[in-house]
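A further point concerns the way the authors explain their paired sequence and structure data. Showing the layout once, in full, would remove most of the difficulty. For illustration, here is how one protein appears when written out as sequence plus structure tokens:
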Amino acid sequence: MNSRILAVILVLTLGWVLGSAACASYLPPTIVPAVQSPALESFRTALQTYVDQTQPFRKDAAAKGDAVPNQTSANGADEAVRLRQRTLAEAIQTTVRPTAQQGDVLSPTVADLIRRQLATAFGGPKADLIRDGLKDQNEGLQAESIALTINRTVAVPRVPPVLLETLPQLPQQVEFAFSGRTLILRDVDADTLVDFMLQAFPDSPPAGDVPALSPAAVSDGSDPLFALPGIPGSTRFALIGDSGSGDWAQQAVANAMLRYFTTARRFSFVLMLGDNLYHDDYQSEFSVPYQGLLERGVLFYAALGNHDRELQQHYKPFHMTDRLYYAFTEGNARFVVLNSNKPGDDAQREWLDGAFGHTGTKWRISFFHHPLYSSGQHAQQSRESIRPALEPALVRNRVDVVFSGHDHLYERIAPQQGIRYFVSGGGGRNLYDFHKSAFDEAGSSEHHFMVVEIAGDQMFFEAITPPGRTLDCGVLSRTADAAAKPQDSTTLEWQDACRAATAWRTLRLTGQ
């Protein structure tokens, strides 16, 4: 480390110790995970040096972002994220590593080893799943690699979760991305290129599809809305997944949510199940569609999807508290939010084992982007990649209900090892076909949002389309004892109304 960098680090560190202790920003641990092969130890060492050198500048960038006024508004929060990113990027470019070159972190020896590991993966049993995952990430992008420059901002997709099974685990400060056959190491806070290796993949990922909009707009509706029971002391919230399209479909779902809030039943917060901002546009993909709810004090809690940028963890209206996985308690429920972009992350799974501590008799709810069970376009990914990585930990922690998105449809899954699963990915993006699986209780390919009410050991749920029709509804019990108790008149009346509200259709469980 040269004297100039050391001097700046000492000044920044001293300033933080003496004057910045009150800053609320969270910074993740700086320890680089252990590597599985001794041949990768040099990579771990180089990466640890990078993290250590950049850490004081991350603190400085976070402080400048926190100083932006009016972050309760979408505009102020947006500017805070952008300023934080720019400040760190400039420090890396001008102070930390102004003379950095390709191969400084991913050395030729390390690159050769990773290429061999990737070649084995591309020739293995998950080869088709890997290529499908790369294509999905490559949505709307070209197949060939773009020009790359160390330390410069690079807008390319991250690698899919299935490919992380082959690559070394990384600290939270960086992530693997790709462009064509090139594997990229990117700083998630600065959004800059740390290093890259050419010809990492044996063949170029196919260009992703450009989602087509239906010529018939999703219309707002005036159908009477079926309301949750509104039991005194209950906790009510809404859910949206794959919503950040910024087009008419997202707006139609958002309008229906506002109509439900103002005319049927109010809810306190919204769970966002990922793919919240497809184009990283905080205005047209979030603050504008949900302006009515935001103005009425409704909070949003976000999980990140495969098309989201990790910088969103710093966006105050998403309430992620600078964390890719986090937890909070509302009423009679403990909510644990996971980062399913890295389902095999050892640190996350270890954290999960303590996240439900002192929950007692509260509902244990987890939400994240990629579903463990799905009958949509990503069914194979759910079955072969996400489920093996996360299901043991969810079962071990006695989770009651899991909400996910990723597949653009609605799906209610029969209990699996004691856990109820919902897929709710119809928040605005183009829809996927639904194909019945043996584990399905209900499913349909329609735009929608969900509303949930938790009252004691009962959970009432609804899925609602933009016109206001009830797509699905029902009641879950937290325990077997609760399910065995005679139901009160409120629940019985609501269930009768639920059956009447869904009489207009039969969910598509015949397969296609």
Q: What stands out?
A: The chain has a mean pLDDT of 91. The chain has three domains: 3-96, 108-197, 235-501.
